[in-house]
């Protein structure tokens, strides 16, 4: 054998082994060698799979034919109809035409116009849909944000005021239907709202408010002297809440029908001073009758004998040996209690008996003055005497004498008058009120304006001095006596226990016109502008009713009525939101019967009777219907339009709803 041939075979063997090594790649994998039998078996398996797919397709075709036949399709002619369908008329390109082919030109122009209109309408529809989705998402986020912020009451952050932006919009914008106010809703595990459990105080207050509203709306209060303050005071007495009843007694004392608009709070301060004087007289009488043996009450009934008996129980020692004595008691102590009881006639008589003719003349001048104070000349004369005998801010001499002369002259305003003035908070307030009500002296720094007295109570002393956290009613009592109604209400509302008292005090004072309201409903609950404080009544009421308005919508309407006179757009907005969120349209607005009659709702109580009341009710029902339609509540809106006698709007919306139903059924 040729040697070259052998070498070529060897090289071929090496190349084959090298190729095999490259194929293996150094991995220890098994080599699969298929025989002819195995290849036949694999082919049969593939053929069986293809045959099964064809059978399944045939079975699917049979099922499809059965389904189409059950729906009324003509199966024998179905293929013929399908063959006739062509997409050429819809999607075929425009045929090229000759320059002189007028029919073709017009046909192409018509197709172009139709195509452009369809494309433009499709684009507008997509844009409107995208805009609607974005606005709905933004509104949903705004709702969530307001619900979070609604839990943070009285926040100093201005972002919390966004919660009342809808109220501001309702006052300043014509379209009040585009905003939804967030509310807190407590629901059970099933999703149903939990009925709010009102406390006994809240229930009695609400019942009294409802009765007062009903009497006021039907005209039963015309000519009667009882106000909402009087009715709420009766509720506090029935509840046997002595401290709360005392607050209502203060409001009863200061409620005035004829208030000097130029200085109204000073007039109210005079009434508060009279309240303290009557209360002191009552306290003296209670002390005497509680110690009759020691008091030795007798003689002619009157303030003088009552003071004598009181000093028998609680004697006051003589400060100086030469001090005059009346009925075995120091004359200055007797004069102080006579003034403290508000009996100027008794004080003048005691001064005459003690030989103090000049002082008796001063008391007589106060009696003749309608404001029961000295004139400028007499007050200036008495100030000079006071400074000569005692000097300002010097705690010397007889303390009762200092108090008597200081309250008559209205001087020494920075002195607390030691043991006499600090015996009780009421004694201190009475002394300061007398100084604030005294005749102002020209170019004098030793005066106590009302604003300065109020600032001393709230700023200089404040809640810490009065231990307001532990005794909130006492601090509120001081604020009410000094005619700081807005501050007192806001303070009480910050305490959960006394929140209901604060709300009803605000409503009662607002009806009397004694409350200063904020200009904007988005303002905080209390706004301070210099020495004046303003209360955001709408914010106070809506935050109070939020807890029970979902389960007691009729009760919420009673409180909303307090906003109707001054905040008509806001009242309407509250009614709209209440109806939409509770879905209690029949309960709130009523409904139309099948015979054409109308079933009244809770709202009918707060609208006028007769044709005017019907128009107002229809106006509210129309506003609620428009808001419901804008939120997709078409069926409810149809019923509300019918209730409001808006027949055209009712038919239009009903046609729209029916067309949508018919289209959906097809």
Automatic annotation (TrEMBL):
Principal localisation: nucleus
Gene Ontology MF term list: structural constituent of nuclear pore
GO cellular component: nuclear pore
UniProt cross-references to Pfam families, sorted A to Z: Nic96
UniProt keyword list: Membrane, mRNA transport, Nuclear pore complex, Nucleus, Protein transport, Translocation, Transport
Protein location: Nucleus, Nuclear pore complex
Tree of life domain: Eukaryota
GO biological process: poly(A)+ mRNA export from nucleus; protein import into nucleus
Family as reported in the entry's similarity comment: Belongs to the nucleoporin interacting component (NIC) family.
UniProt protein name: Nuclear pore protein
Organism this protein belongs to: Varroa destructor (Honeybee mite)
């Amino acid at each position: 054998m040729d040697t070259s041939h052998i070498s070529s075979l060897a090289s071929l063997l090496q190349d084959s082994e090298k190729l095999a090594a490259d194929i293996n790649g150094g991995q220890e994998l098994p080599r699969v060698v298929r025989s002819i039998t195995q290849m036949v078996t694999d082919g049969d398996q593939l053929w069986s799979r293809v045959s099964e797919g064809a059978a399944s397709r045939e079975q699917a075709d049979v099922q499809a034919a059965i389904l189409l036949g059950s729906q009324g399709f003509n199966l024998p002619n179905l293929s013929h109809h399908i063959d006739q369908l062509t997409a050429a008329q819809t999607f075929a390109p425009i045929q090229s035409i000759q320059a002189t082919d007028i029919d073709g030109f017009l046909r192409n122009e018509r197709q172009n116009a139709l195509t452009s209109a369809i494309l433009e309408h499709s684009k507008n529809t997509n844009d409107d849909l995208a805009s609607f989705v974005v606005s709905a998402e933004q509104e949903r986020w705004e709702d969530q944000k307001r619900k979070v912020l609604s839990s943070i009451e009285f926040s100093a952050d201005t972002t919390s005021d966004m919660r009342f932006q809808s109220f501001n919009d309702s006052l300043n914008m014509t379209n009040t239907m585009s905003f939804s106010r967030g509310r807190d809703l407590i629901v059970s595990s099933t999703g149903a709202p939990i009925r709010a459990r009102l406390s006994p105080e809240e229930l009695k207050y609400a019942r009294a408010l409802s009765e007062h509203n009903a009497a006021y709306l039907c005209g039963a209060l015309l000519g009667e002297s009882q106000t909402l303050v009087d009715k709420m005071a009766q509720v506090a007495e029935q509840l046997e809440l002595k401290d709360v009843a005392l607050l209502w007694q203060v409001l009863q004392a200061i409620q005035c029908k004829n208030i000097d608009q130029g200085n109204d709070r000073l007039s109210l301060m005079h009434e508060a001073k009279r309240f303290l004087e009557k209360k002191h007289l009552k306290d003296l009488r209670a002390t005497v009758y509680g110690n009759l043996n020691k008091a030795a009450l007798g003689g002619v009934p009157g303030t003088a004998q009552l003071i004598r008996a009181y000093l028998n129980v609680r004697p006051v020692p003589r400060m100086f040996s030469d001090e005059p004595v009346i009925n075995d008691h120091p004359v200055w102590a007797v004069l102080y209690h006579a003034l403290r009881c508000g009996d100027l006639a008794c004080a003048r008589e005691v001064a005459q008996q003690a030989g103090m003719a000049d002082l008796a003349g001063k008391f007589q001048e106060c009696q003749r003055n309608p404001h029961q104070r000295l004139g400028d000349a007499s007050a200036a004369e008495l100030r000079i005497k006071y400074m000569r005998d005692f000097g300002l801010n010097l705690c010397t001499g007889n303390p009762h004498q200092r108090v008597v002369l200081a309250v008559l002259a209205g001087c020494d305003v920075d002195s607390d008058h030691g043991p006499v003035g600090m015996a009780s908070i009421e004694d201190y307030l009475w002394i300061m009120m007398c100084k604030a009500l005294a005749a102002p002296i020209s170019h004098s720094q030793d005066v106590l304006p009302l604003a300065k007295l109020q600032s001393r109570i709230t700023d200089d002393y404040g809640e810490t001095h009065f231990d307001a956290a532990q005794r909130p009613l006492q601090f509120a009592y001081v604020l009410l006596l000094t005619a700081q109604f807005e501050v007192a209400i806001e303070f009480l509302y910050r305490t959960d226990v006394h929140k209901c008292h604060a709300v009803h005090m605000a409503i009662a004072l607002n009806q009397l016109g004694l409350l200063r309201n904020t200009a904007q409903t988005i303002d905080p609950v209390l706004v301070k502008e210099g020495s004046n404080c303003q209360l955001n009544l709408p914010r106070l009421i809506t935050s109070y009713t939020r807890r029970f308005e979902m389960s007691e919508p009729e009760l919420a309407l009673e409180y909303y009525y307090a906003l109707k006179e001054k905040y008509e757009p806001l009242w309407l907005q509250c009614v709209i939101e209440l109806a939409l969120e509770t879905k209690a349209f029949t309960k709130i607005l009523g409904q139309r019967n099948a015979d054409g009659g109308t079933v009244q709702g809770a709202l009918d109580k707060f609208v006028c009777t007769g044709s005017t009341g019907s128009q107002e009710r229809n106006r509210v029902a129309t506003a609620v219907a428009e808001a419901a339609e804008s939120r997709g509540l078409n069926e409810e809106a149809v019923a509300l339009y019918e209730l409001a006698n808006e027949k055209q709007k009712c038919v239009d919306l009903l046609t729209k709803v029916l067309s949508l139903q018919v289209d959906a059924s097809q």
